[in-house]
Design brief:
Blueprint lengths: L10 H16 L19 H4 L34 E3 L31 H4 L6 E2 L8 H4 L11 H32 L4 H14 L3 H12 L1 E5 L8 E5 L47 H4 L4 H16 L10 H30 L10 H4 L8 E2 L5 E3 L26 E3 L2 E3 L14 H27 L24 H19 L16 H10 L13
Antiparallel strand pairs: 1-2, 3-4, 5-6, 7-8
Helix pairs in contact: 5-6, 13-14
């Protein structure tokens, strides 16, 4: 009923949706459930159950009909009237000078003004009131019954009961006075009859009152044409009182559901009883019998025809819709008969042909069959093997066995050459040997590859004296190149100290030799060396 989104539906889906809604309304299908697990009434109109598109509702729900943007800061509680929180023994500074409470001052004190306040007497200190502050919403500020205690209404009930009790007591006293006057005076019969009428008037007969009230129940007040100023009328209820009400036929709480608002019970309350003895089988019996089904089909036909573009409406022109439905059924039957005649003319009709001979119907034949004492067939009927619908014993592509005669590793194949390809050519025993050799070679290659991966190649690391921190022992230096490197290092340090000697075009050489590195180490200043200041 409550659709999450108005997505596009085909004609078949739309028809199924309508049938499902009708079944839910009839009580045959379970009601739709929202995201909170509550059932959605199938009689709710679509314009109320459908959520707006901007809410992006993914599941059917009725939250958009409720106040879902409630402010949690607002409260619905009310003041605790007359509550006290603390009782002091002595007067406190800043308290009320009259009663001694800290929650108000002398000007706002509601106690009786004392001759000498609690400030001077320091006696009879009043307890502090409970002060609360609430943040109410728009409705809470305007709720006239907010904070009302329903138990206080018992006082009103007690007043009315006391008044009724006093009235009954007064009537009883009046009745006793009348009886005393009747006994004391000897009047004639007329006077006595008048007194009896007065006594009957004063008596309160509860049984008669209850009877009059019950008689009103048999009348149903029905308003007739009251919109245009018409009158109201009284219509008699024609239901026989001796009939058992439908909701009393089965008192089990899990039986058929009774809706008190519409007074309907769609399912059968006593489905296990004898149908010949039942006088009520549920309201769905009326929906599934008589012309109810024809009317339902008429409505469905009108909806489908309107969707296809025909100008038809069940409520606007019911006679036209019914006439079109009758023509549709006639044309449909005629088309169905034509299709049937065409099929019978093409393939024939076995039901209309001549009957088979009696011998064939009873299974009689001239063939002799011999049985033994145990009932087993000895001679005359050979056991026939069941044949499949596929071709049997047909060999293709030079195979000597059929497909499916060999199985290995979840694959079917040919037993003659052990191949698993359906349209392969048979290679015989040579193919089997070649396949086994290829398999063994593949396994050997895989094992060799795994062994190579397990032992990685170890590359020798060369320690270069140029960039290393430690000088190897077998290092051999050229003295001539070392002298040139020391000279270059001195020139470089001189240029660093005096940039005026630095030329405009600087040539940079990033090739560092072993002699250059040794000259750099020899000229390098060691800051931890105590003789570093005497080197240069």
């Amino acid at each position: 009923m409550a659709t999450a989104s108005a997505s596009f539906k085909s004609r078949e889906d739309h028809r199924k949706q309508l049938e499902l809604e009708e079944a839910r309304k009839a009580g045959l299908a379970p009601a739709e459930v929202d995201e909170d697990g509550k059932e959605i009434n199938p009689h709710i109109p679509q314009y109320m159950s459908s959520a707006p598109w901007y809410l992006n509702a993914e599941r059917p729900s009725l939250k958009h009909q409720r106040k879902w943007k409630s402010d949690p800061n607002y409260s619905k509680s009310w003041y605790d009237r007359g509550a006290k929180i603390y009782q002091a023994d002595r007067y406190r500074k800043g308290a009320c000078e009259n009663c001694g409470a800290m929650t108000h001052d002398k000007k706002s004190c509601m106690d009786r003004p004392r001759k000498l306040g609690a400030k001077w007497t320091n006696m009879h200190i009043a307890p502090d009131e409970k002060i609360e502050s609430f943040e109410l919403d728009y409705d809470g500020k305007r709720d006239r019954w907010n904070g009302y205690d329903a138990s206080t209404y018992s006082r009103v009930i007690e007043q009315y009961e006391a008044r009724d009790e006093a009235r009954r007591k007064y009537l009883k006293e009046e009745q006793l006075k009348k009886l005393e006057e009747k006994n004391n005076k000897k009047a004639d019969e007329d006077g006595g009859s008048d007194d009896d009428d007065d006594d009957d008037y004063l008596k309160v007969d509860e049984a008669k009152v209850d009877e009059s009230k019950q008689m009103d129940f048999a009348k149903v007040e029905k308003r007739v044409r009251t919109t245009g100023g018409g009158s109201t009328g009284t219509v008699r209820n024609l239901r026989i009182r001796e009939d058992t009400a439908k909701y009393l036929l089965n008192l089990d709480v899990n039986s058929a559901y009774y809706d008190p608002k519409t007074r309907s019970m769609r399912e059968d309350p006593i489905p296990d009883s004898d149908p010949n003895e039942k006088f009520y089988e549920g309201d769905n019996q009326n929906r599934l019998s008589g012309q109810a089904l024809e009317f339902k089909q008429l409505n469905i036909h009108a909806w489908e025809a309107f969707e296809k573009g025909q100008d038809i409406h069940m409520q606007a022109a019911p006679s036209q819709a019914e006439l079109l439905f009758k023509n549709y059924k006639v044309i449909k039957d005629k088309l169905k008969n034509n299709t049937k005649d065409t099929i019978m003319e093409k393939y024939g009709n076995a039901a209309s042909e001549e009957a088979l001979p009696r011998e064939l119907l009873l299974g009689q034949s001239e063939r002799e069959v011999e049985y033994d004492r145990a009932g087993r067939i000895i001679r005359g009927q050979e056991t026939s093997l069941p044949r499949s619908k596929y071709e049997e014993d047909v060999y293709i592509n030079n195979h000597t066995t059929v497909w499916g005669s060999w199985w290995r590793d979840h694959h079917w194949g040919y037993k003659c050459c052990k191949q698993t390809i359906r349209n392969s050519y048979c290679t015989g025993s040579a193919g089997i040997e070649a396949a086994e050799a290829a398999t063994e070679l593949l396994k050997a290659n895989m094992a060799r590859k795994e062994a190579a991966e397990d032992k990685p190649v170890q590359h020798e690391e060369k320690q270069l004296a140029t960039w290393g921190t430690e000088v190897p022992d077998d290092l051999v230096l050229d003295k001539k190149l070392l002298a040139e490197a020391l000279k270059k290092e001195d020139e470089r340090k001189t240029e660093e100290r005096d940039e005026r000697k630095r030329k405009y075009n600087v040539k940079w050489d990033d090739e560092v030799t072993v002699e250059d590195m040794e000259a750099y180490r020899m000229k390098k200043i060691h800051h931890d060396d105590p003789m570093k200041d005497f080197l240069h």
